[in-house]
Amino acid sequence: MSDLSVVKKNRRQHILDEAARLFKEKGFGGTSMRDLAEQVGMEAASMYNHIRSKDEILEQICFQVADQYIAHLTEIEQQPGTYVEKIRALLRLHVRLVIEQGDAVAVANHDWKYLTGEKRATFLEARRLYERRLAALIEEGMAQGELQPLHVSVALFTLLSAVRWVELWYRPERDISPEALEDDIVTLLMKGLEK
Amino acid sequence: MSDLSVVKKNRRQHILDEAARLFKEKGFGGTSMRDLAEQVGMEAASMYNHIRSKDEILEQICFQVADQYIAHLTEIEQQPGTYVEKIRALLRLHVRLVIEQGDAVAVANHDWKYLTGEKRATFLEARRLYERRLAALIEEGMAQGELQPLHVSVALFTLLSAVRWVELWYRPERDISPEALEDDIVTLLMKGLEK
Fold first, then answer.
1. What is the value of ipTM here, to two decimals?
2. Which GO MF term does the entry hold, naming one (chains A, B) (predicted)?
């Protein structure tokens, strides 16, 4: 990649990052391209050299997040290890992505509703497929006797839902490190609250 | 209570129930008093004999739900039993209220944002107090050695968040009974997914 195209790529990612921050703060509907240009410190006209529309920004953010979850899931599926280890790794991933990219994850979790047409259908299909693959890990873990015999969908959605609050709560100044937060959530979900 | 006032109270509750259904389906903003009158099969004018405004309906729904959670929590706190038993009872309560009154719980969970002024402040204070009392049960359970030693807020919010999906997923035609659903969620959260 030429130096110029690297600069252009970084600039584009910077616009996406700032957009995610604004969407989370003011809502997708409440954020204008003018707000965004101001936030990134560019003239609106030159911002359009990097990105065409608010819809395109939303698509980029949602699919970047989805792609990361899917890439990590693929890696975890292919690694050797028990189902317990795989599910632990996935729970850690869910917590870590929120800590490291909270704005983008929040946008992908909430503002995907503003995706339209084929993009929306593709995003929802990717999410469904991700859930099915995670459900398959849970089901196989139960079949192998590693996991409690529960209703697979109930286990799946309880796990996914159980980590959703982190997005609303976590800030670097909280009295817990990211690692301890991951540990505590994984312990509660895998070992249970009871001692 | 006179027969007439019983009829009036039932009529009022029927309006609230149908309002909760419409708010969940079309959103608080997307539901008009005209929609509601049509849904309950009354003239708008006579509906106003029972209820003054959409804001009043929202307040009633939110506080009825909050009052139930608080009343059950008070009962659970006062019952004899271990902390494990108390927290199990509370988790069951959270699942059961969603199954039995899913529309109203959904409105209280999401549309409280449309409460205004003092009502909003009172509702949020009630929610914070509920969370603090549940956190106290968790903390005492840890102090007694009944529960895993985790960050109290992390345990609290993981539990509360872990049951939130039920509202979106549960329908009577699902392939699981309400009791089995309660059992599976409580088992996962208290005993862990690992066998």
1. 0.91
2. transcription cis-regulatory region binding
Parent domain of A132: 58-191
CB of A15 closer than 8 Å to CB of A47: yes
Nearest by CB to residue A157, choosing from B145, B151, B169, is B169
Residue type, A8: K
How many other C-beta atoms can be found within 10 angstroms of the C-beta atom of residue B168? 11
Residues A24 and A78 in one domain: no
A192 vs B contacts (CB less than 8 Å): 148, 188-192
What's the burial of B163, exposed, middle or buried (CB within 10 Å: 0-12/13-18/19+)? buried
**CATH code of A70's domain:** 1.10.357.10
Which of B157, B175, B189 lies nearest to residue A192, judging by beta carbons?
B189
Query: CATH number, domain at A4?
Result: 1.10.10.60
B20-68 per-position pLDDT tens digit: 999 999 999 999 999 999 999 998 888 988 999 999 999 999 999 999 9
